[in-house]
Amino acid sequence: MTGSSVREALDASVDALRAAGVDDPRLDAELLLGEAMGRERSALIADGGAEVPASAARAFGEMVRRRLRREPVAYILGRKGFRNLELMVDRRVLIPRPETELLVELALELQPASVLDVGTGSGAIALAVADELPTCAVTATDTSPGALEVARANAKRLGLADRVRLLEGTLPEGGEFDLVLANLPYVPERDWPALQPEVTQWEPREALLAGPDGLDAYRSFIPDCGRAFRPIAATTSAALAVEVGEGQAEAVGMLMREVGFERIETRRDLAGIERVVFGTGTVV
Asked: What 3-state class would DSSP assign to 61?
């Protein structure tokens, strides 16, 4: 691609990416070339006749080769936007998805004084809540030491390290929280072969798969969560919200009812899928 214009470099890479089965080859090519040239995507598109410097061409070529192996763009760039934040990501953590923002939106509705984010991964939910609810005390947990390293690095880089307590494990001993949020593994094993290579070959399998029907993690977590709840002063109600896969909302709602959550709601994502199950009630 040395000596090529921006337009020529993009066109060549788009053809190669499309042939490899990439879903949105032009967007990916523009993001990667923008990174290689140190330019915003919009400026790049507007100046299609500009020459791609040799060093940028080499960097772009290497990034395109990685994308042809179906490595996600977020891992190639090392970052992913989530609400108002730009998070560092690598193969130790899942790439934050837009539908997970529903959990943050729920926290903004409820205005809790304290939140626990279970399975924090890159820290996306916890850091977004801390960023958008400055008075909220946020705790985040993960069983993966590697994920916690990523979350801590993100918290420090975003200036939120003093706002989010990060702990290894699931439920902190003696914790008291107004709201517990969780995005645990929920992909059924039967669905794994049909997922895109970006997921099956690159993202951490242990953060995705949860048994034959995808509910193993929640079958374990929700009863434990119910036993661990200590309602905050002035309220007798506990609140739990979890992200689930398509068709899982009813079963997860039943698990919540079994431990004492009396009121169950669901929230749909932009595709119309019941993506968040929210339970409130007196949990004993």
From this structure: helix
- Measured CA distances, 58 to 10, 15, 33, 53, 63 (Å): 14, 18, 10, 9, 9
The rounded distance, in Å, linking the Cα atoms of 45 and 29 is 11
Q: Closest Cα to residue 79, out of 161, 172, 154?
A: 154
Does this model's pTM top 0.85? My answer is yes
Asked which of 36, 69, 102 is the last residue of a domain, the reply is 69
116 with 46, same domain: the answer is no
Closest among 283, 280, 198, 211 to 245, alpha carbons compared: 211
Let me know whether 109 and 65 are in one domain.
no
Handedness of CA 64, 65, 71, 77 (dihedral sign): negative
Instruction: Clarify whether residues 100 and 43 are in a common domain.
Output: no
What are 144-184's pLDDT values in tens digits?
A: 999 999 999 999 999 999 999 999 999 988 777 899 999 99
Q: Which of 197, 185, 215 is nearest to 94 (CA)?
A: 185
Q: What's the CA gap between 203 and 75, in Å, rounded?
A: 9
Burial class (CB in 10 A: 0-12, 13-18, 19+), 81: exposed
